[in-house]
Design brief:
The complex is a heterodimer. Chain A is about 20% helix and about 25% strand. Chain A is α+β, with helices and mostly antiparallel strands. In chain A, strands 1, 2, 5, 6, 10, 11 and 12 form a 7-stranded mixed beta sheet that branches. In chain A, a hairpin with a 6-residue loop joins β7 and β8 (about 185). The longest helix of chain A has about 35 residues, at about 60-95. Chain B is mainly α. Chain B has helices at about 10-15, 45-60, 85-90, 100-105, 105-125, 135-140, 145-155; strands at about 35-40, 75, 130, 165. A 3-stranded antiparallel beta sheet of chain B has the order 1-3-4. The two termini of chain B are about 25 Å apart. Classes of the chains: A alpha+beta, B mainly alpha. At the A-B interface, β1, β4 and β14 of A face α2, β2, α4 and α5 of B. Chain B: Keywords: Signal. Chain A: Keywords: Signal.
């Protein structure tokens, strides 16, 4: 899980949006590029054009190194600026008759309160939750689909195809197009690999009542307030299967179903409402608030898998 | 923001902060969608504090959106654009964070979203919700976050509040 956090948070610090995707429309023809991958998914909901899906891309080792260097540089710059400002404030207090030790204590306390260091963005890389950074250096975060730009559309169904950089991705959140605040799947979601030169079928994304029926929401741990019904607080994924219908656009391409696993929790980096993906049989389950991928045991029950963690820096 | 580290909180501290259970009940107050506390039977005080702290972190919703906050790059944007330009190039739908959201989502909505996030987070952890009066809620939420978390955790892990249990 922490490995994901390193990657996902670091993804926000790459300066060029190299993984910004290209979303195909109905009239477009798919020409598979060997250095690209393609995400195919469907959405089902009462208002199918209302919600965008956001994904975070996990960074390669080289990209993580680059992001780390950028963070270190930002940290050094910020620390130097803070030190200069602090000295200036201490001097000002001394001129007003405050002794140096008291002035330093006062300034340090004040500064810590109102201006957290950019060490903050360094810390969340290895934290399950915590303060969100005050400032971001550079900023590629991820891929966000555009819900109005569908490859195919039915009454309540939309089909999307997005060209992206190959790599590991996490289904990160849902964002309404009216900008009234989205929902972060911070408390549990799934990851998948998007191989180069292939189309990954992510299955069907369902929202709110189409994700979990109203009468089963409370039992599943989700809020059941009518006042929240217009917000995209609930999402479920139905993985693609043998019978899943695919658009003709991908007829000549290699299409593989996404192999989902639990991605673990991550910080509410976007300051949105928090939620988690509905459980997916055999893929995503929750032990209280901990997401895991069930593995079959001899007794037929399921056991949590171990989530790989990187050492805190 | 103050980091809330359960390890440094003593059980004694929790006991000092623990109010009487009866004080937290408010059967006559109907505004429980706004004013409530959480409780779970047989949860250890340090776990309750960790849970409350995490959910407080998680529920800092749109109120904290920053113009310089993280930005999702919409699809169909040429490589090389700055995040802000990319967001604009993608239309309103291209930005998640930033001033646009801040301006669009009004304060009451933000408060509602924050409450909902807190409730959702605690619900995932198995806590039930009990209504309190507005005055009691204000009292519990007065002061710094660490103090607030201590009070809420003490209630969450203490005796079950007498009074109205409301739907999660």
């Amino acid at each position: 899980m922490r490995m994901f956090l390193v990657a996902a948070a670091a993804a926000m610090l790459v300066t060029t949006p190299a993984n910004a995707g290209r979303q195909l429309k109905m009239r477009d023809t798919l020409t598979v590029a060997p250095d690209k991958s393609y995400l195919l998914f469907r959405t089902v909901g009462e208002d199918p054009d209302a919600f965008d899906i956001s994904f975070l891309r996990e960074l390669s080792a080289a990209e993580q190194q680059q992001a780390r260097a950028a963070l270190d540089e930002a940290f050094a710059r910020d620390e130097a600026r803070r030190a200069r400002r602090q000295e200036s404030e201490v001097a000002a207090l001394q001129r007003r008759g405050v002794n140096e030790a008291a002035a330093r204590r006062h300034v340090a306390a004040e500064r810590g309160e109102r201006e957290p260091s950019v060490t903050a963005p360094l810390l969340p890389l290895n934290m399950i939750h915590g303060p969100v950074p005050r400032r971001w250096e550079g900023a590629e975060v991820g891929i966000r689909s555009m819900s109005g730009r569908a490859l195919d559309r039915g009454e309540r169904l939309r089909t999307y195809l997005i060209e992206v950089a190959p790599g590991g991705y996490v289904v990160a959140g849902i964002a309404p197009r009216d900008m009234s605040g989205g929902t972060c799947l911070c408390m549990g979601s799934v990851r998948f690999d998007a191989p180069a030169g292939q189309v990954v079928d992510l299955g069907t994304f369902r929202f709110n009542g189409d994700a979990v029926p109203d009468d089963r929401r409370a039992a599943a741990g989700f809020l059941a307030d009518p006042e929240l019904s217009l917000r995209p607080t609930l999402m479920a994924i139905e993985p693609s299967g043998m019978m899943t219908e695919r658009p003709q656009h991908v007829a000549g391409a290699t299409v593989v179903p996404a192999r989902y696993t639990a991605s673990g929790r991550f910080p509410n980096l976007y300051g949105m409402m928090v939620s988690r993906l509905a459980p997916i049989p055999g893929v995503l389950a929750y032990d209280r608030d901990r997401p895991f991928t069930p593995t079959a045991t001899a007794a037929g029950s399921v056991a949590p898998t171990t989530i790989t963690a990187s050492a805190p820096r | 923001m103050k980091r809330l580290v359960p390890a440094i909180m003593s059980v004694g501290g929790l006991c000092l902060a623990m109010p009487a259970a009866a004080q937290d009940s408010a059967p006559d107050d109907s505004n429980h969608s706004k004013y409530f506390v959480f409780h779970q039977a047989n949860v250890a005080p340090d776990l309750a504090l960790a849970d409350v702290s995490e959910c407080m972190d998680y529920s800092r919703v749109v109120v904290n959106m920053r113009p310089s906050g993280p930005t999702f790059i919409p699809v169909n944007v040429p490589a090389g654009l700055s995040p802000a330009a990319a967001g604009l190039a993608g239309g309103l739908g291209g930005l998640i964070g930033g001033a646009i959201v801040e301006a669009t989502v009004h304060a009451p909505q933000r408060r509602q979203m924050r409450r909902a996030s807190m409730r959702q987070c605690m619900a995932f952890k198995g806590y039930n919700r009990f209504g309190v009066t507005e005055e009691r809620w204000e009292e519990l939420h007065d002061g710094e976050e660490r103090e607030i978390a201590l009070r809420l955790a003490a209630i969450a892990s203490g005796p079950a509040p007498e009074g109205t249990e409301v739907v999660r």
